[in-house]
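Task 17 of the worksheet. Students: predict the tertiary structure of the chain below and write it out as structure tokens. Keep your answer in the requested format; marks are given for formatting as well as content.
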Amino acid sequence: MDRVVEDGGPSGDSGQTNEGQKRIQKGYVAEKLEVVTEEEGERTFLVRWKGVDEVELVQSRMVRLHVTALVIYFYESRIINAAKISVQ
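Model answer:
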């Protein structure tokens, strides 16, 4: 079962983890963006990493900067699915 890794530190990250930012900086490869959420005005993506069993919340600005193609695919797939639903 997947779980969200949360940072319990005093930084006030609203459940976001700095580990996700560290993984991006270390060159980990994001496999999939599961969901997008917004809390207290901060948008985050739930990121699934290749070779890592856990998923993590990562700040949207970091994800957009480093895995732009996945962000585009994430939103395009939702637009296409919404269009299919509205046609039926």
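Marker's comment: The beta strands are 4-5, 30-39, 42-49, 55-59. The two ends are 33 Å apart (CA to CA).
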